[in-house]
Structures are given as structure tokens and as C-alpha cells.
Amino acid sequence: MVADTPIQIGQRIAARRRAARLTQAELAAAAGLSHAMVRAIERGARRPSDASLEAIAEALGVDGSRLVTGYAGTAARVHAALPAISAAIAGYTIPLDLPAMPFARLQARVDEAVAWRLAAQYGQIAVGIPAILQAALQHFHAAAQPTRADAARLVVAAARTADAVAYKHGAHDLSARLIDLMHWAAPYTEDPVVQATVAYTSAETYLAARAYRVGQRALELALDAGPAPTSDASAAARAALHMRAAVVAARGENVDAAAEHLQHAHDLADTLTEGIYMGTAVGPSSVRIHEVAVAVSLGRDHVADALTVAKKWKPGPEIPAERRSGFYVELGRAQLWSGRPGDAFESLKVARRLAPQAVREHPWAREDIETIRRLKRADAESLTSYAEWIGAL
Predict the structure, then answer these.
(1) For the whole prediction, is pTM greater than 0.70?
(2) Kindly report the CA angle at 46 between 41 and 51, in degrees rounded to 5?
């Protein structure tokens, strides 16, 4: 297959942009790129990188293959990178090479990767995280005792970021191994807040296995062993555990436990300013999002609770894109169950605009768009386009 020329790619992007009634400046803002870069790409003076192409495609609401012939997209890039992630942690207890990356540089790269996770930029993570994991483990093994705690923190943060990619893309065995790595490294941080954060992440294993009762119990044991809420960080850690315990209990149809954990999360979050604590969004807005998640997880009989929250409140920019996107996926399901497929489609479109890579890997979004297509024939063309994008066709 002959590769597309930069001019051909630029012409397709420009045509899609005009069809979407966007200016170059508006497309650049939506894609998080500079106006100069978009202008150069459209006139064929610059070939877009994979990351830039995905950002433009997401801003235009199309798959990257519509802009570049044969483009495999984020999912293919992620799956191609999974073996490298696996190799990076294969012998995590065994010291090998001395670190080549300076510690300050590693810290900056971990912070960047965490930001990618919160923004659901899984393609970016997949490419960069193997080297970050390897460097973090090298620093940990080479560190003297006083600095080993800092290195262990970076190991936990890097493993959690890699786990987001593995878990979202269905590599649950790799996800479990990354969580094992986090459990191994967390005690070396000598920080109970870090250990509580690992327990929060570990719930993914139970969610993936649909082992809700044991998952709820594991989170409650973590709460028993966790730090008292004597600081913002420790209060946030406990609130996060309660938020996740509420969702896991709801998936297990334990209405009372879900309500109790949600109330505890409310009480703790009300003492905090909405923000990112140890890599997790916590605060009053995050708890409201979990109210919707709990209601939808409990099933059709509880959708009125989700719709009541959404009628009064919507998440703003204080919430990371991934979590805001999840709110709209869950709201869409509540709207669909309540006989409002048009509103459900609008919510799914908002979710895609906020964090397209997260929506493409969300099983509920794929299921619900198929149902909406059957119910809402008037929007057949736009629904079909969305279904093709998400992989439902």
C-alpha cells in the first residue's frame, strides 16, 4: 500500500473540519494543538505524528483511519505496546542495570504520564510507559535507604498509570500483575496514604472478575487499616476508598452498603477542595459523579436517582476528562433506560468529546449505542457513524 502524502492527509483534515463548521483555530483548540501546527498540517507542509493525528481525529469525531489510509488507531498502538509493558515488569524484584535517566527527569516523566491517565490519553501512555517503568524500578533498586521511599512512590505511580491502559483495554492478567507490583512497592514508601491508594486501584481486579462481595470486603478491610482523616491527603484517600466501595457494593446489589459508603464519602469530601490527591480526583464533585455511578450500577429501578443528580448538576473542568466522560456514559445509560434514547445519544456524544479514548473502550457505551440505533431511526446516519467509530459495527 502506497502511503498517503502529507498533502492528501491535510486535504482530508481540512474537508472534515469544514464539514464540522470549525475554523482552524477552533480545531486547534479542540485538539490541544497550536494553530500554526494545524495550519501547516492542512496545507501539507507537515505530516502529523500519531498523537497529533489522534487528537485531530478525536476533535473531529472521526476515526483516524478516515484521515490516513490504513491507520490502525489507538487500540492497535496500545495492544502493540502491552508486551513491552509486560517485559518491563517481568522481574521487578531483580536488580539489573543502574539507572540512566536522572531522577528529576524520571519524576517529570511520571507526572506527565499521570496527567495522560487523567485525560484518558492511552495511546500516549502505551508508547512512553515501558521506559518509565523500567527507569523507576532501576532507581528503586539503586536507591540508598533514605531515598528509597521516593523511588518507591514513582514505581507505584508508574505502575498505576500502566494499569489504566491494561485494564481499559481488557488485558486483565497484565493489570493484575501491575497491581501486584504496586502492592510490593507500596510498603517501601512508608506512607499509609500510598497503600490506601493501591487498595483503591486493586478493586479493578474484583470488578473485572465480577467478584463484588469479596471486592467490597477488600475495600472495607483497607478502610479499617487505612490512615485516619487527619490531613487532606488522608481524608481524600479514605473518601476515594468509600467512593469505590459504594460502586462495588452497588454492582453486587447491596443497596444499604452502597448508600452507607456513599454517605461516608460525602462527609469526607465536604471537608476538601476538589482536586487530585495521590493521582485520584476527590472532592464534592467526584462524589456527585459517584452518586450517578452507584444509581446506574444498582440497575433500572434506581435510574431516577441518577437523573435527579444530573438534572441539578453537571461536572465542570475541575474534574479530569476521563471521570467527566464516565459521568456522561453512565447518564446516557440512565436516560436510555428511562425511555429517552435521544438524550442518551447526546450524552454519549458529550462523553466522546471529553475523552474519546476512554469512551471507545467503555463496554456500556458500545452496548448502548447499538440499542439507540435500533430505537432512534431518525438519526440513522449520525448513529451509524458513531457506532462505526466505537467499534459496534
Answers:
(1) yes
(2) 75
